[in-house]
Design brief:
- The protein has about 70 residues and is mainly α.
- Helix 1 crosses helix 2 and helix 3 packs across helix 4.
- The chain is elongated, with a radius of gyration of 15 Å.
Length: about 70
């Protein structure tokens, strides 16, 4: 994975090849961070509803995407 600085600089590039690669890298990073924070929240007893509210989505969306991966009701 690229360094955060490389990704940030790439995202501001005028070259679409560089910029789009940076967008893809940011998307991957965001997904990893989301899983990490949802795992943290579930370990602390947060409900799927609590998590969904923070992410601005429905409870069903979050549970469908992460329920099996992370576990829990």
């Amino acid at each position: 994975m690229q360094s955060t600085l490389d990704i940030t600089e790439g995202a501001a590039s005028n070259d679409p090849d560089v910029g789009l690669r940076a967008v893809a890298a940011l998307r991957e990073l965001t997904e990893r961070l989301e899983v990490l924070q949802i795992e943290n929240a579930r370990k602390l007893g947060w409900s799927w509803q609590d998590i969904a509210e923070r992410l601005g989505v429905t409870k069903q969306t979050v549970h469908r995407k992460y329920g099996r991966l992370i576990g829990g009701r």
